[in-house]
Amino acid sequence: MSAAAIPKAELHVHLEGTADPALISRIARRNFIELPGGMLANEHEFDWSDFLHFLQTYDLAASVIRTPEDYRDVTFEYLAGCAQEGAIYVELIASPDHATAVGLSDEEHFDAIARGIDDARERFGIEARIIATCLRNRGVEGAEEVARRVVAAAHPYVVGFNMAGDEAGFPPEPFARAFAIAADGGLGCTVHAGEHAGPESVRGAMGLPGITRISHGVRAIEDPSLVEEIAERGLVLEVCPGSNIALGVYPSFEEHPLPALHAAGVRVTLGSDDPPYFATSIGREYDIAGARMGFGDGELVDMTRTALDAAFADDALKADLLARL
Known about the structure:
The protein has helices at about 20-30, 50-60, 70-85, 95-100, 105-125, 140-155, 175-185, 200-205, 225-235, 240-245, 260-265, 280-290, 295-310, 315-325; strands at about 10-15, 40, 45, 85-95, 125-135, 160-165, 190-195, 210-215, 235-240, 265-270. The chain is an alpha/beta fold.
């Protein structure tokens, strides 16, 4: 079996970060707005140099996505591309803060994404759900506000809660109340950790209420006892090798810790994070895991199964997706 033929599932991709320069430019023309200065290196590439600069560029591109139709199109186009690469399920990380910044209500935001999901399902058979994320850069109160809003919205497609942003500048522990609100509200919980900060960030994330997954988590490899604890707890790491290499977390795919984490018994999945920024896709992540990281076809199928097991979707949907394997 080739990697292209393997059914794929993705738990870690930022919705605003799926829109490539061509789509962002098209949306800008439709909205009669100029592209933000400094956003593009050229017609086909975003301009960024390091992680914090990437976050700034990401915000510029997201500021162009302004209407419900924009969000519907970004969702549909990404899921269409995933389906063509063999993906059957995607959890899209969506930011209420970015939508609020352009004047959309949570209802408008989530309903627009849901329309994109529905249209992609009807056209391509792919399924998707939404993970709402707070931005740690906005502080503890901002995170708790987002958690309360998402729980209150009770959108049927919003199944999880995450926290993204400047991990090194904003450790996870002070955000425990935001995750308690989300978990008590019935949302699955995951959090960015162990990417641009070390094992201490992962340990802090593991102590947050409701956590069953860690977004990235790869730098846990620096602490063998932590790796053992992650494996014992059955926590799932949403690993994004292409993102890690592009952002300089590791120098090459051959030196990436995904194989070592897997060998240590850690449950791992593959994600593309922000694909046009890092010249990747979910299909490419599976290809690289097979061709350059030593994973066989059976192990790649097992990663898909792990992703579906760990998905925050309802049990009936998960059972249906698992049957498709």
